[in-house]
Amino acid sequence: MTTAEPLRREQAPGERAPSDPTGPGPRRIRSALAVPAVTAVVALLLLSGGALMRVPKASGFLGPQFFPLTVGALLMLTALVSATWALRRGSARIGRGGAGGGRDTAETPSPRGDWRTLTTMAATLLAHLALLQPLGWLLSGTLLFWGISYALDRRRPLFDLCVAAALAGVVQLVFSGLLEVALPAGLLGKVL
Q: Where does the DUF1468 domain start and stop, copy by copy (predicted)?
């Protein structure tokens, strides 16, 4: 009983066929490295701009170089960790022969993207920009941080609102206390 058809290995549930175009491969890994690459470029721009910045002698305690260099270093660290994570995840998927590999496929992002999250974040940022002068930093910053956490599907809105208010307060203290930079006071400046 010979057949002309070659023997095929049976696939495990959730495993994709090797010829599946949506399976992992060099193209998918390259696309996963796009965000870390852009983040690294922005980090390099911040680091070089901060290092080449002319600092006046009368600058404050931390000086104007502190934030660009700190944010640049943190962005570079984020880019490296994100690239490492993408490479490990991509090689693990290639080793398993597919994106499923017995895991829940809900982890795999939709090719259409998450438009709800994107539009909520964009609306939150636009509202923050529009309300910064009239409401002041504390209120608009609180709304910004809370809106972003809401967009990312947090399940505890009251707790998130308290954390957002505390974070906005810490930013206010850092800017006014350490850097001597006045953020907009808005309504609270008229009340207090």
A: 41-184
CA–CA separation, 49 vs 70, rounded Å?
12
| Annotated domain spans of the chain | 26-106, 115-191
Q: What are the DSSP E strand ranges found in the chain?
A: none
Q: How far apart are CA 61 and CA 180, in angstroms?
A: 9
Answer yes or no: are the C-beta atoms of 157 and 150 closer than 8 Å. yes
- Rounded to an integer, the average pLDDT of 172-189 is 83
Instruction: Tell which residue, 38, 53, 52, 49, has the closest CA to residue 72.
Output: 49
Q: What is the pTM of this model?
A: 0.53
The residue written with tokens 């809105």 in the block is 157
Phi, psi of 69 (to 5 degrees): -70, -40
Both tokens of 131, joined, read 């309300």
Q: What is the DSSP string of 81-123?
A: HHHHHHHHHHHHHHHHTSS-TTS-GGGSPPTT--HHHHHHHHH
Task: Report pLDDT digits (tens) over 13-59.
Answer: 555 555 444 555 566 777 778 888 999 999 999 999 988 888 777 77
Q: Which two tokens stand for residue 101?
A: 């590999």
- For 139, other C-beta atoms within 10 Å of its C-beta total 18
